[in-house]
Specification:
3-stranded antiparallel sheet; 8 helices; Rossmann fold; elongated; 2 domains; Arc Repressor Mutant, subunit A; 234 residues
């Protein structure tokens, strides 16, 4: 677990938020608290977080909305990476709520009331797991994402990408080594309301491959997994 990991806590109950923040800060973690979904979105556009703790029930929506946007590219301009660990909080102990959160991509789920010490332990476990799973760039690959400038560099040189190509490659890079389904890539680059099709993704992947090959003819970065999707291999 990285020292001074920065967390975003989305919780509308100030008393619970203070208790959680205190428990996490005692473990050496930095906690930024948001009361509302809108505020949390603004914070995630402003900076990258190492982990998110999101409440389900909020005055202006649900933490599940933010989880969906993070995992499936529904909100443009987020600096927090799509692969960032997420722990959901909920006052509802219903199985359907836990299942929905996990299906949307949550890494862990804790129902209220909960022990702050248990929450801190789960957060630390998620951060350790993320540190272990984080892919180390292969020697000479050096694909780097600049989310503020909406650019991706290969070997230190910026790639000439369109907006859609950038979003596609950024999504693949955030989950390097994992297979991304076409509908996930479609949502990341075009949004959930787009009328574009899987064929559109295939066309843009073909163009991306050509630009990567032009910049580095020695290897192919994007592999196709028939019937499943695409994977960025570092």
């Amino acid at each position: 677990m990285a020292l001074h990991s920065r967390l975003l806590l989305l919780e509308d109950d100030p008393a619970i938020a203070r208790t959680v923040a205190y428990a996490l800060e005692r473990e050496g973690l930095q906690v930024l608290h948001s009361l509302l979904l809108h505020d949390a979105r603004q914070q995630m556009r402003a900076e990258a977080f190492d982990l998110l703790v999101l409440d389900v029930g909020l005055p202006d929506g649900s933490g599940l909305e933010l989880l969906r946007e993070l995992r499936h590219g529904g909100a443009a301009g987020l600096r927090t990476r799509a692969s960032t660990p997420v722990l959901m909080l909920s006052a509802q102990g219903e199985e359907i709520d836990r299942v929905l959160g996990l299906e949307l991509g949550a890494d862990d789920y804790l129902a209220k009331p909960f022990s702050p010490r248990e929450l801190a332990a789960r957060v630390k476990a998620l951060l350790r797991r993320a540190a272990v799973q984080a892919p180390a760039p292969a020697r000479g690959a050096a694909l780097q994402d600049d989310p503020v400038g909406q650019r991706i560099h290969l070997h230190g040189q910026p790639l000439a990408l369109t907006r859609r190509e950038y979003r596609l490659l950024a999504c693949l890079l955030a989950g390097a080594g994992r297979i991304h389904a076409r509908d996930t890539l479609l949502a990341a680059a075009w949004g959930n309301e787009s009328e574009s099709t899987d064929r559109t993704v295939d066309t843009h992947i073909k163009t991306l491959r050509a630009k990567l090959r032009e910049a580095d003819p020695a290897r192919d970065y994007i592999s196709t997994h028939r019937g499943m999707g695409y994977c960025l291999d570092l």
